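Final report, closing paragraph on structural work. Over the funding period we assembled a curated collection of sequence-structure pairs, and we close with a single example.
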Amino acid sequence: MTTLQRTPLFPLYAAHPAARCIDFGGWELPVQFSSITQEHEAVRQRAGLFDVSHMGEFYVSGSAAQAFLQYVTTNDVTRLENGQAQYSLLCYPDGGVVDDLLVYRIQEQYFMLVVNASNIEKDWSWLQRALTDAGDRFQDGVVMENASEQTALLAVQGPAAVAIVSQLTDAPVASLAGFRFVPDALVSGVRALVSRTGYTGEDGFELYVAADDAPQLWQALLQAGAPHGLVPAGLGARDTLRFEAKLPLYGQELSAHISPLEAGLQWFVKLDTDDFIGREALIQQKTAGLPRKLVGIEMIDRGIPRSHYAVYNTDGKQIGEVTTGTQSPTLKRNLGLALIDAAYSTLDTDVFVDVRGKQLKARVIKAPFYKRTPSQPAAGTHTDGTHTEGAKQ
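Its predicted structure, as stored:
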């Protein structure tokens, strides 16, 4: 039997009797602390606290660090200033996605990469191989460190996030713009990199701390947030929140077989920059015309679209499949994201979803399904544009 990995906060889950954990990519993580719907609504209306310490963190430094990251990622690293982050992707030579990630520029030639938990080993190997395959191009100018096991990540998301985090630090977090960060803030006595990013479609912060300090900070945030309605939130709400905001999840909206252009992430693929891995394939795909597109769909007939449900045209021909779908907790409508033949991606096109053997009518609609009305800069209009929020599950 495989032993599941646990975050430094796992022992604290016991304080929440209704918490339920699942195997998520080899990690024992809470899918919910109370209920998915309650946690979802708390983030939209007040605030939620997420343990996302399973995410991976790599440091890249050296005289050729920036040039190397420009070579392996699709976005333009040269645009970053100190204290700024960007959403980006690692691609295979054929344009498929290795992973999506956040790139933080801490100092000149000193970066932190945040990658998906299920892809840590794969991404680390990919970066090492890319460095080796580049030969003398970056020789002796790149140093990489995998700090995933030593790093914990907490996310405070929702309209009350600024008020909560500001109580615990003298750092100017309230004035941070989206995708900006304070590299060394003291938050309730804990050293943290505090970033105005997230994965929910709401304003908020992500706090990177030493693994041993995570329990202290978790408790401090819960205490400070209690008067604001802050609740601990699990992976279930994290998924429904990011889905409503059309923030992609690797393995569903992105994969080795789905390009960032097909997933609608063209804003984060800078084809006019210097050569990066996958650039030529993506140029060819764009020039020839995208064969598939990621679209929003709404069920007309009664039924909920689920991941991998087949999608058909009106003649009964399969044209794609649902990548993510659920009943939207915010909108109370049965919605989905689907990767389908581009010919059927026009708004208001009728399609059919195979729900448990029955082809039920749906319609192509505009996505994201939810956009916050900002009174403060969004934590990400990426991964996190439409998708500026990026630290992912």
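The two ends are 24 Å apart (CA to CA). The CA atoms of residues 296 and 366 lie 6 Å apart. We thank the funder for supporting this effort.
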